[in-house]
Design a protein that fits this description.
This protein has about 70 residues and is mostly beta strands. The chain has strands spanning about 10-15, 20-25, 35, 45-50, 50-55. It has a domain at about 10-55: Single Sheet (Rubrerythrin, domain 2), CATH 2.20.28. The strands form two sheets. Strands 3-4-5 form a three-stranded antiparallel β-sheet, with no helix packed on it. A two-stranded antiparallel sheet has the order 1-2. The N and C termini lie far apart (about 40 Å). It binds zinc ion.
Length: about 70
């Protein structure tokens, strides 16, 4: 189907959805991985890796309700 392996991108960066800072990534993140913005400490969840996209990760709270 895909005879050639996808070229691994080099260092990438994504834009923080909170403060628009550029977050440099040392490697390709996994979908669902959490990255933290160094500027505003926001936790961003990787929702897509191609193209690379992040969303503000839901705050983990003690919410075990429905
Ligand atoms: Zn930020």
């Amino acid at each position: 189907m895909n005879p050639t392996a996808p070229t691994p991108p080099s260092v990438q960066s994504v834009e923080c959805t909170e403060c628009a800072a550029s977050i440099a990534l040392q490697r390709v993140p996994l979908c669902g991985e959490i990255v933290r913005c160094r500027d505003c400490q926001a936790e961003l969840e990787v929702t897509s890796v191609s193209p690379l996209r992040v969303e503000l990760a839901p705050e983990v709270e003690e919410d075990w309700g429905e």
